[in-house]
Write a structure and sequence with these properties.
The complex is a heterodimer of chains A (35) and B (597). Chain A is mainly α. Chain A is built from 1 helix and no strands. The N and C termini of chain A lie far apart (51 Å). With 597 residues, chain B is mainly alpha-helical. In chain B, the strands form 2 sheets. In chain B, strands 1-2 form a two-stranded antiparallel sheet. Chain B has a two-stranded antiparallel sheet with strand order 3-4. Classes of the chains: A mainly alpha (35), B mainly alpha (597). The interface between A and B is medium-sized, with 20 and 34 residues.
Chain lengths: 35, 597
Amino acid sequence: MVAGGREMLDVAMILITLFFFGTAIAYTAACDKLK
Amino acid sequence: MTINGWLQILCFFAVVLLLTKPMGVFMARVFSRERTFLDPVLRPMERLLYRVTRVDESREMRWTEYSIAMLLFSVVSMLALYFLQRTQQWLPFNPQKFGAVAQDLAFNTSASFTTNTNWQFYTGEQVMSYLTQMAGLAYHNFMSAAVGIALAVAFIRGISRREKGTLGNFWVDITRATLWILVPLSIISGLVLVSQGVIQNFRPYDTVKLVEPQQVQKLGQDGKPVLDSSGKPVMETVREELIAQGPIASQEAIKELGTNGGGFLNANSSHPFENPTPFSNFFEIVLIFTIPAGLTYTLGRFTGSQKHGWAVFAAMAVLFFAGVTVAYWAESRGNPLLAGADQHASLMQSGGNMEGKEVRFGIANSALFATVTTDASCGAVNSWHDSFTPLGGLVPLVNIMLGEIVFGGVGAGMYGILMFVVLSVFIAGLMVGRTPEYLGKKIEAYDVKMAMLYVLIFPLMILVLSGISSLLPQGLATLTNSGPHGLSEILYAFTSGTGNNGSAFGGLGANRWYNLTMGITMLVGRFLMIIPMLAVAGNLAQKKLVPPSPGTFPVTTPLFTVLLVSVILIVGALTFFPALSLGPVLEHLLMNTGKTF
């Protein structure tokens, strides 16, 4: 259980990272469209 | 304050001033792809890199493409550092056999180094293997700095180009920033630091026997004192001490030069292995300002208005001297609550408030280091900002809150102050009733909207997260001071994180709440501010040049410098004054009534 929990935490950290950078790319497109 | 102290500060500034032009000219040549004396060695290496990575160096990018390339590069680099920390126990160059870094701490550290923040919730000599330090952290020290320089150059191109939709090539810019600027300067600086006694080895740590064994409180795994059944602290005798080793000099140079600030050792530049002599201290402070000061000259060179570059330099210099004067004065005064102690400067002592400062460096060099490291987004420290007097500690905090535009982080300081320039000419335009112009480019609604996005994201992150952390039990769990000083510690942490500075006020321990929120804060403070900045650059690059008219506000005069400084101070003061009143200002007033925290 503990090992599984740790792996889930790794997945969570990676997903947070990917989500942030995905948002930043979408934000780039939104700033471009604002013009 | 002493004459000796002021002479050292003025000598430091004179050296920075002397380096500004040669650095600026060199960087302008590098990014204009003009020939430099390093070309015979570096040009073949550059060509090989492009061939291997299939980069077409003649291909220019629109701002959106430049932005997405930067984001993709950063996400891959950040994940690589995360995996390195999580697998270091199986990898070589780990003589102390450190285990994997905890997940939330690895996330925090990856975000920290990718964003050039270098906030350290870990103790380097107790957690990171030599491989992680060299291939992970030092890699980011170079690349996050290179990204900053590339972005500043992209912005400068945006200002200087006419009716062109592109800002350069991101891959070419980071390659040239690394090969021509950061690597050569780091090699030379690293050797200078070795000559002063900064260590560089791969040995396991030394164990030495203490001359006099010490009785200390036993600490549990949570870092808190272990208590016996009657509630008394359990004591233990310490007979040996570990002395950390490692490849420090090679990381020390880029730590300062790239305005990274993450120390190999937890004590950072107050440790004699990182900063052994008065000269190494002076040299390290100069390294922090070398590239950011040079970029003001590069700005003048690119835009064809060298006077404008110097006007921006002058605004930065005014803010630098204001900060260092207040910090030096406040720390020299000492602590009024220690009225019985001799706190006067003399041949035998530095005098003033010496808590948290190295005796080797004294008040002047501690105040100077603290001011410079927060003017730039460096974050290296040679004294503990938490131990400064309330007004002395206010200076580093305010420096970061102003956006670290006083020379600033490598690149980040330049594009940061240029966003304030856009706001300044906009305000000047409103005052004279004309369409604002900046170096012949009309500043329109879109530019101002993007500039405001840039300015507003910063306080939004700091104030909202500081407020939430001051209320939540998780936010208060690792706080070691109460009252206004405790608030200052939380406020400083989020300001340092969002501003990508990385210096700590101290007194705030790591837990999962801070690891995650600080990690996200650093990412937002870097990337979500870069994007509107690049949008302004891209928009400016497309514009036609308007010939100057009697209504054009000149950006080369002392009046412009005064207006720029005023806008920076007003924006900073209006945004952060309430929070500062509840923190360092209140603490100062209470200290004068005899109350400390």
